[in-house]
Structure formats: structure tokens, C-alpha cells
Amino acid sequence: MKVAIQGEPGSFSHEAALKMDAGAEILPCALSAQVFQALVEGRADAAAIPIENSLAGSVLEHFDLLLSHDVRVEREALVRIHHNLIAMPGVAIGEIERVSSHPVALAQCRRFLAAHPEMETIAFYDTAGSVKHLMERCDRHAAGIASSEAAKLYGAAILEAGIEDNPENYTRFFLVRRAAEATVDPGTNKMSVALALEHRPGTLVAALNALAVLGTNLTKIESRPVHGKPWEYIFYVDCLIGGPGEADLVLKVLKNHCTTIRELGRYPEAMR
Fold this sequence. Notes:
alpha/beta; six-stranded mixed beta sheet; Alpha-Beta Plaits; five-stranded mixed beta sheet; D-Maltodextrin-Binding Protein, domain 2
């Protein structure tokens, strides 16, 4: 299966793709929009996208992209994020003048970077891409923050391992397929839906109360603005389900309270 990711080989999205499909062929893309475009155009069979980090929160762009394309979430995975300072082989940490990585990775290594004020931080489009870039340029004064796999893949060296501020650093990833080709795993116990409500008092409370009456365990709710309709919102909801029957019942109950509801996928809950 060819899986599109945002970023380069050796990135955490690459790791997540292989965790969800060990034999996956990776299709790297520079932007998240290009990932979804590759999927809907058939150049990829699936996409592996980060949806939420335990420290940085939700990847909001990906909620919008899920809703704007005819796709379904088929699986999820949790990836422990280990950040490493990576440079060319033979370079000493004292030679490093610049550190580049994805902005989220830089933010998750604030304590390390604060302890090295001599290192200028530079935002880059991808963690693994920062390592690839410095190796291509043979830049002995640059380092990247990325996974150990990125160091291995591009022939770089880890100067310092585990530089993230918090060890409880996990990212939740979705494996997304075209809707017509998505399957439902027999072990499915989780569902994601997007819903819109009338813009009047109590509508969200009523919808959530309906789920509570069913005994449905709500695990996440996220709001996103409706483009072109100021101060109106789409709500993204994850909930645990007991089986196909409960999933259908959840959708039926929510329809009584929502102006729009769309199922985004059913899949097994990922465990640490």
C-alpha cells in the first residue's frame, strides 16, 4: 500500500505509517493539502496524518482537510515522540550555531534550546527534512531536531538524545483512505464524527446529553469555524462504541439535534 505523508522519510509520520501498515511504501509530500490531493487523485492508497499531540494539542488543519474530502479514517496509532539533536558525523555540539526543525518540535524542546542560547532556532517544514537538508549542504554548523531513524536514514549523527521537555510526548495519527475503499476492522470500538448545530442556546448541551443518556464515552471534542459563516462552528467528536449497533444508534440520536452530521470513520482505539 502506498501511503502519503507530510514530510520526508524518517519523519514521525513515516514511523506512524509503518506502525499502521508495516509494508507501506511511503509517498512524501511537502504540504498536508498535497497529502490529501495525492490520496483523492489515486496517487496514494492511504494517508498517514497526525491529528493530535499530547502536549501541543490538535493539528487543526487536518480536521478541516478531513471534512473537505471524501475520505474515511480506517485506523489510528499512537507514536512516542523522541527528539534528538542531529548533525553531521564528527561535529561537536560546540560547533552548532543553528538548529532547525518543525515548529512543534522546536516548541517541545524549549528547555534544551534555552540552555544553548548560542544556537539560533529556525522553523523548517519537517523534522526529518531538517536533517536531510543539513546533510545535503554538508553544513557543519547546523543541526536538526528529529527522530533517530532520520539520523540513520541520512547518515547523520545524534549529538544528544532525548532532548524533549516532557517524556509523556505522544502523537495520535490517523490512517485515512478514500471513502469508497475504506474498511471497518472487526475490532472497531471508536468513531469520529463531525456535526453542526443550530446557532441558538442549548443545542450543544442537548446533543452531548443525548450521548450521555446512551452511555457513550466521549473522548474528544474540537470546534472549528465554518468558513464563510462567522461565529458558526463545526464540532469534531470522538467517542468509544460497543459495536456497529451502538455506532448507528449514536448517529441516529445525534441527527435529532444536528443540522449536519458526517461520520469520519470507525476504527480500533490505539493503545500506548
